[in-house]
Input
Amino acid sequence: MMSPPMIFTHGRLIFPDRIADGLTLQVEGGKIVDLRPTIPPDGEEVIDLAGNFLAPGFIDLHVHGAAGRDTMEGTAEAFRAICDYHAGGGTTSLLLTTVTAPIAEIVRVVAAIEGEVGRIPQLRGAHVEGPFISRAKNGAQRAEFIVEPRAESVVQLMEAAGAIKRVTLAPELPGAPELIAHLTTRGIASSGGHSDAWEEEARAGFTQGMRQVTHTFNCMSSMRRRGRERVAGLLEFALSEPEIFCELIADGCHVSKTLMRMLYQAKGADGICLVTDAIAGAGLPNGARFSLFGNDCLVTDGACWLADGSALAGSSSRMIDLVRRMVAVVGVPLPEAVRMATKTPAWAMDWKRKGALVEGMDADLVVLSPELKVVRTFCGGAAL
Output
């Protein structure tokens, strides 16, 4: 359904490098068509922002679930419930993310996602996290389903490649560089994660096209001694390589303030993609129990843990929570925090019509209060 023409006025517009007052934004046909000091209404719906912020809609590249629902259910009902919950946090584009599971199960879920792309406005496709990961860094992923990227499993997965936009894998696995090269030729982003790689193994993945890393600092190899010298892991390689985009779960549980500041100093706003890594516990009350593909999990103090407390299973946050924390806790200027949730992930995925308030871009918008709470969310000019 085509959204009606609209004019947004009396707001504070958030651009990648500044906040601008006194501008009016016009939307028509689901696109931003004009942006200037005064646009006289001519049959358009006028939305008075009353001094609130207007930002591009947030982009979340790593979402497993919310509101008790999980991507691995593989149903349109679950997908819509997840997307609706995250729209309340300002997210207008997301990748539903699978977990380490039998290949046939992943293919089933990805095929279901493909069937809902275009029907659920926020849904951009699938992020496949595992099963090609390290057993040494599996975190909350089920180790019994981890496999190496051998020909049979890769062919089976590629049968569902129409919806796959991103794959998290460990670049040190036998066959991983070849898989990364294959994904790159098909326009699918490779992200190093759940990895125990040495720096040369990370570089081999980079050489083949790996340009992202998953949940930086979490389930990721770091500097260690080898022989007489200390050698970098995937973490240090990602920090030192300007072309690598780093995911960050800025929920206050996965990564400490000092580490978040270190990542910001190393990569800047143009190198960090804020992600929620939210799972089914997002939106559930403290103490709630739920399942993550067979793992019993618990919401505790604002995060989601395996019920035995052995590992974080994911976050319970929405994107606005991460933006607000980057500003209030890490001290990042608001335009840069918003950039990490909009323009940078759009760059990382080469989504050319997403992530900025620019003429010709999709009218994916979020209205934020001065306290950085979501007031309204629009996707393609339509209210969510």
In short: The chain has a mean pLDDT of 95.
